[in-house]
Design goal:
Blueprint (H helix, E strand, L loop, with lengths): L2 E3 L9 H7 L8 E3 L7 H7 L4 H12 L5 H11 L13 E5 L2 E5 L10 H4 L2 H11 L5 E7 L3 H10 L5 E8 L5 H8 L6 E7 L2 H12 L2 H9 L2 E5 L5 H20 L9 E6 L4 H11 L4 E8 L4 H8 L1 E3 L20 H8 L4 H14 L1 E3 L2 H10 E5 L2 H15 L5 H17 L5 E5 L7 H8 L2 H4 L4 H12 L19 E4 L3 H8 L4
Helix pairs in contact: 1-6, 3-4, 3-11, 4-6, 11-12, 17-18, 17-19, 19-21
């Protein structure tokens, strides 16, 4: 199977080339030339398979040039009991009949990004070997909080690679920041950016397409790649868990094979929900994909109106991993819905870059609305949902999953659709413990405590253990002190790599 650029100005490449490159030189994202299908009979067979077996099967369909042994090595090296604290890897929890939470945060950094970023380093090194790539691979990452730590953990001390992570200095939780700036590893670099996630993401995209930087790195035997969801090798493992969720529902008798379900995803950069879209395209009976946004509701407005407009105030919320106004992966969806019309997609992306907005045609917009539904939750509504779910089910949500649940309730109220539903739970509640604490602890227990003291109070109140990845993180040695403006990110990259 060949992979094409969504902007059409670069030739088709193999899967190994697409994963190694990360982003196309024309600025586009690599997309599979065709989408393989899974039939109901195969889904029935999967009921008796482990998560690892399901992952290997799905990934093999997209990575035809990889041997089964290569894919199994990637999968088994990523999803094991040393790295994940739950045997099912992505367990499905039933809150009540028809309402399920898929916990995607049992990996080493307590966020859903581990589901992909434990596999990606293995896919990347395997891909580089496949195409005879001898350059040192420089992984460049912009993060709104979770991707950064998960990527650092995944690429830590991986031979032949170095990783550089940029995060918004004041736009992540204290736990997220401490996870990144205390990161160990001989090949890792971290820098805070004075600005928001979009500033960091634009800076990284500019570096990727800078001929000057590319040439400077080439002279040093280096080549850039990405661990953001712009890299197909990052998106592919995410398709797996939506297929696995459907299989789990069938296995436990919650639905009959072939019955449709809804999936709700808290969404910022559109990568996680796009993976669910690809699962749907493969034949998984998904009725609606419910896109849950916070106050940075640019995607909600797009799904409702067909107009993508980032010209609005940027809101700092208690669900910071979704504080994004430029959703990179939407480009892939538009490429698919327009029948791979790269010229049209390029035009929209140019408009976004030049004016901050674009409007899709009526045909494309009607396709979006046929598949997607969207609304958003305020911070107050998010806290209310955490409180309500704790009181009703004695189940603790993080802020992002609470956004998803709140929006799902709005969907039900407005549509009356009671189809069996899976809500993607993207982080441990302890990762955003100070906000979660506000929702369920009394004012007396909260008063005067910092974010890390609140984690202890939350643990005591809920009788839940603080995950090892977060426990005592405030006492770890800070190893990364760099803070930069967005304009100086190129210089920081060169400095980290000791290139003058």
């Amino acid at each position: 199977m060949k992979y094409q650029s969504s902007r059409g100005k670069y030739g088709a490449v193999s899967a190994a080339q697409a994963i190694t490159m990360g982003i196309s030189p024309d600025g586009g994202l690599f997309v599979p030339g065709r989408i393989p299908s899974i039939n109901i009979e195969t889904l029935k067979q999967m009921e008796s398979w482990t998560y690892q077996q399901r992952a290997a099967h799905v990934m093999q369909l997209f990575l035809e040039e990889f041997s089964p042994e290569e894919i199994e090595a990637c999968v088994n090296g990523a999803y094991n009991q040393q790295k994940f604290d739950h045997a099912q890897i992505a367990p499905l929890i039933e809150l009540e009949p028809g309402l399920n939470i898929q916990e995607l945060w049992h990996g080493p950094t307590c966020a859903f990004k581990d589901m992909a970023l434990q596999v990606l380093p293995r896919l990347l090194t395997t891909s580089a070997n496949k195409i005879g790539e001898n350059s040192e691979i420089i992984i460049l990452v912009a993060t709104s909080g979770d991707t950064g730590k998960a990527a650092l953990e995944g690429f830590k001390d991986v031979p032949g690679t170095r990783i550089i992570v940029f995060f918004p200095q004041d736009g992540v939780s204290e736990v997220q920041k401490m996870q990144m700036i205390t990161q160990e590893g001989n090949n890792v670099h971290v820098a805070g950016v004075l600005g928001n996630f979009d500033d960091a993401q634009n800076g990284v995209k500019n570096i990727f397409t800078s001929d000057q930087i590319i040439e400077q790195l080439q002279r040093q035997g280096m080549k850039m790649s990405s661990a953001n969801s712009i890299n197909w090798g990052r998106l592919l493992p995410q398709i797996v868990y939506y297929i696995s969720a459907y299989v789990d529902l069938c296995q436990r008798g919650s639905i009959k094979p072939g019955e449709t379900i809804n999936i709700v995803v808290p969404t910022g950069n559109f990568g996680n929900i796009l993976a669910a879209y690809y699962a749907r395209r493969m034949g998984i009976p998904i009725k609606r994909l419910i896109c849950a946004a916070n106050s940075n509701n640019v995607l909600t407005d797009f799904i409702r109106t067909g107009v993508y407009d980032r010209n609005r105030s940027f809101e700092k919320t208690i669900s910071p991993s979704m504080d994004i106004l430029i959703s990179s992966n939407l480009e892939r969806l538009l490429y698919e819905l327009t029948g791979h019309d790269s010229q049209q997609v390029s035009q929209w992306m140019d408009e976004l870059k030049d004016s901050g907005r674009y409007e899709v045609d009526e045909t494309t917009h009607s396709q979006v609305q046929e598949i997607f539904w969207s609304d958003y939750a305020t911070d107050a509504e998010t806290l209310e949902s955490i409180t309500a779910v704790w009181n009703k089910y004695h189940y603790l949500l993080d802020t992002h999953t609470a956004v998803a649940l709140n929006v799902y309730e709005k969907y039900q109220q407005q549509t009356g659709d009671n189809s069996c539903t899976v809500i993607a739970s993207t982080a441990s509640p302890f990762k955003f413990g100070s906000s979660v604490a506000q929702a369920i602890l009394s004012p007396e227990l909260i008063k005067g405590k910092n974010e890390f003291e609140l984690l202890e109070a939350l643990s005591v109140e809920t009788a839940m253990s603080i995950p090892e990845a977060i426990k005592n993180i405030d006492k770890r040695k800070v190893r990364h002190h760099t803070v930069t403006s967005a304009a100086e990110m190129e210089e920081v990259v060169l400095s980290f790599l000791n290139i003058e």
